[in-house]
Write a structure and sequence with these properties.
Elements (H helix, E strand, L loop, with lengths): L1 H8 L1 H11 L5 E5 L7 H16 L9 E5 L5 H13 L4 E4 L2 H10 L5 E7 L17 E7 L3 H12 L5 E6 L7 H9 L2 H4 L2 E6 L3 H14 L1 E5 L10 H10 L4 E3 L2 H5 L4 E5 L1 H16 L10 E2 L3 E6 H6 L6 H4 L2 E4 L1
Parallel strand pairs: 1-2, 1-3, 3-4, 4-5, 5-11, 6-7, 6-8, 8-9, 9-10, 12-13
Antiparallel strand pairs: 10-12
Helix pairs in contact: 3-12, 4-5, 6-7, 9-10
């Protein structure tokens, strides 16, 4: 009876030991919301791989790592999720809300560790943050009130701004309506009119930027679930050309020409996610791993871009920001 209980308590470790005994390595399947060649996404996946290596897991030596890059297309993510699950990995790792949904729909038994989510309860992925009751847990980036912070920072940077749009792809950012609702609550305080900007293509992004240029508006680029990575180079160039101020949720975009970003260290979440994957591979149960929220946020300002837009960075932002020249 005690042996049966131990096997039930540590199902993943038992499977891993069985595989080792049969010359099969424990395996980790990764489902991203990005496409191959997205440099920011590749950097974060590399951080995840290194996080596992720091804990003694060396890819293709003592475990097998399989990474899928379906991009933000839901149908493609669902296909890749089912294909990953068919290989019976010991742990699954997801990097966006849609990819997490796709994995959840594909399996209710294989442990899933997620990173980079916005409101896992509001999106229906998790019921209990402290003690997850299904096969999902991980790390969440933002609460929806963050949209007010993004708007406030953007208004500080561009005080003449009269309106702002929250840019998102509805397929890869199903949580966008919650952000928009929180943003509306800040309108009177900031003296802004706020609207949602639902986009699915580069041409639609360009149209939103053109409208902002005509109306003296700015943009908040919401956490995008992988969509924006394929459009970022075009978007950042057009924002500069049309002199539209914008704030991003991810540091990578400010470091590559965007005006500013404010958010948690997403790369660190991938390292933290590796810690949870390590614990599951060593036998921990999902219900013992609470969902965690980011606690440290960083403001990044691209001074070259600010100068090109004719914006003077206020001292109150300079004091707490990382400056990129």
């Amino acid at each position: 009876m005690s042996l049966v209980g131990a096997a039930a308590a540590f199902p993943v470790l038992a499977r891993a030991q069985d595989r080792l005994a049969s010359d099969r390595l424990p395996s980790v399947g990764v489902l991203t919301g990005n496409v191959v060649g997205d440099p920011g996404a590749q950097m974060r996946v590399d951080a995840f791989r290194q996080g596992l290596a720091d804990r003694g897991w060396i890819a293709n030596q003592n475990y097998r790592l399989e990474v899928r890059w379906p991009g933000p297309n839901p149908a493609r993510q669902e296909f890749e999720a089912r294909d990953l699950v068919a290989g019976a990995p010991d742990v699954l790792f997801s990097t966006s809300t849609p990819s997490t949904r796709a994995l959840r729909d594909a399996t209710q038994t294989i442990p899933i560790i997620f990173v980079g989510l916005s409101d896992p309860i509001g999106t229906g992925l998790v019921v209990n943050l402290a003690r997850p009751t299904n096969n999902l847990t991980g790390f969440s980036l933002y609460e929806h009130s963050m949209s007010g912070k993004w708007l406030s920072l953007l208004k500080d940077m561009a005080p003449g701004m009269t309106n702002a749009a929250l840019l998102f792809n509805p397929e890869s950012s199903p949580y966008a309506p919650f952000y928009l609702q929180a943003a509306h609550q800040m309108e009177s305080r900031l003296g802004l009119q706020v609207a949602g900007a639902s986009v699915r293509t580069g041409a639609e992004i360009a149209a939103v930027i053109e409208n902002a240029a005509r109306t003296g508006g700015g943009l908040v680029v919401l956490p995008d679930g992988g969509f924006f990575g394929t459009q970022s180079q075009m978007t950042i160039a057009l924002l500069a050309q049309r002199r539209v101020p914008a704030i991003f949720a991810v540091r990578f975009y400010a470091a590559n020409g965007g005006l500013m970003s404010y958010g948690a260290d997403l790369t660190q979440q991938f390292r933290d996610g590796a810690g949870y994957v390590d614990r599951v591979l060593r036998g921990a149960e999902i219900r013992t791993l609470p969902v965690q929220f980011a606690t440290r946020f960083e403001l990044v300002i691209n001074l070259k871009t600010a100068q090109a837009l004719g914006l003077a960075v206020p001292n109150r932002l300079l004091l707490g920001a990382e400056l990129i020249e």
